[in-house]
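Please check this today:
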Amino acid sequence: MELTSKKKLHALSLAEKIQVLELLDESKMSQSEVARRFQVSQPQISRICKNKEKLLADWCSGTANRERKRKRESKYSGIDEALLCWYHIARAKAWDVTGPMLLHKAKELADIMGQDFVPSIGWLVRWKRRNNVGFGARHVLAPPFPPEPPPPGPASQAQPPLSLKDFSPEDVFGCAEVPLLYRAVPGRGGARDRVQVLLCANSRGTEKRRVWVSGLRAAPTCLFGVSGAALPASYHPDLGVPWSEWLAQFDRDMARQGRQVTLLLAARVAEGLAGRPGLRHVRLLPLAADGSTPSLPGSVVRAFRTHYRHRLLGKLAAVRSKRAGASLAEAAAGITVLDALHMAAAAWAKVPPQLIGSSFVREGLAPCKMSPSPDQASEMPPVPGGLSLEEFSRFVDLEGEEPVSGGCKEETGTEDEAGAGEDGLGPLPTKADALRALGTLRRWLECNGTSPELFEKFYACEEEVERLCGS
C-alpha cells in the first residue's frame, strides 16, 4: 500500500499576503482559487483575510520586513518599541548608530521601565529583522566641514536679518504647496480627488527639486510593491506637506554640495517651523504675512498645472480609445495616485527655466536684475483638441473654484477602488512581463512609422530594462 507523503508547508511572506488581499479585493476569485494560485491551503488564505487590518498596518508602517513569513512578537515589546522610537530620532539627527550603542540604549530603557532585561547580540539581530533596520550599515551624514560653535552669552541668540542680496540667484529657492485635483475632467464638478503637490525651484530656473505629493490615504493600493527610489516623485501618506522631513532632506542635499542657500517660505509655514534645530545649510526667509508676495511665482504654478492638465487629457483620450464608449468621467475613475505621481513629475520637468527665472524677477524674488523672457505664450503646450482656449483655461484653474484650506473632498477608501476591473492593478509584473511588453511596444512603433529619434529613446529604455532583468 502506497503511503501518501506529508504536504510541505508553504508560508507566504508579508508581500505575498498583501498580493493575496489585493486579488480578493479587486477580482472575483474565490479563496480556493487564490490558494491554488499561491500553492497554499484555503485555511491559510482564510487566516490572511481575518488578519487583514493588521497585515495592512504592518505593510503601511514602512518598517516591517516585507520578506518575513511569520511575525514573532518580542517578549519585551515595550523595550522593542521604545528603542525603535529612539533609533528614528537618532537617524533624524544624523547620529552614527552602531550595534553597541543600540545594546547600551536597550539596557538603559529596560532599567527605566523597571524590567530585568539584558539585551544580547541575538536579540539585537532579531530586533533589526523585525523592524527592518539595515544590517551592517552605519548611518552617518557628516557635514562637509566641522560645525562652528556658537559664541558664548546672549549674543548667540541673535542672528543678522536675512536678505536676498546675501545670496546668488542660483542659491535662492522658492517653494509652493499646490492643491491639485489630479483626476478632474473639464466641464463638470466630478472626480474631485485632491492631493497636495510641493514644488521648489531656484530663482534662475536651473535647479528644480524633486516633486513631493501628499494625500489622505496611508498607502494607496496602487503603490503596493512599487519601489519609492524608482519613482520620479515622492509620495507622503498625509494630508499636509511634511515640511520637517522635506527640509531635512533639502539640508542634507545642500550639505553634500557644500552650499549655503535660502528658501522663501510663506509666513504661516515659517511660523510653524520657527525654532526648528538642525538646519545648517538652508536659511529660511519668511515672506509678508498678508500673502501679497508668493513664495513661488503664480505663473510658475499655473505653468505646472497647464502641463499636468494637458498630459491628463492625453492619458484620458488613450483610455477612451481602448474602452469604446467610455465617458471622460469613466476614464478618469481609473487614474490612480501612482499615475498622478508620474504626470506631476513630467509636468514639472516641462516647465521651462526661462519662465521660472523671468517670473522670479517680475515678483521681486530674485537677488539681481535679469531680463524677463519676451514671449512666454510659446512656452505653453497647445490647447488640446475639442476644447476652446477659454474652456482649457478654466480647466487649468479648476482648483481656484475649490477652498484651498480645510478638509479634502476626496472620499477615503474609494480612491483606487474606482479604478478596479479592467484597469485594475492585478499581480505585480514579472521580468518576463517586462520583456514581453518591450517587444510589443517595439512592434507597435515599427508598424506606425515613428521617428528615428523616438527609437533612440526606446533603445535606451530597452537597454535599461534588459539590464534590470539580467541583474
Summary: The CA atoms of residues 231 and 288 lie 35 Å apart.
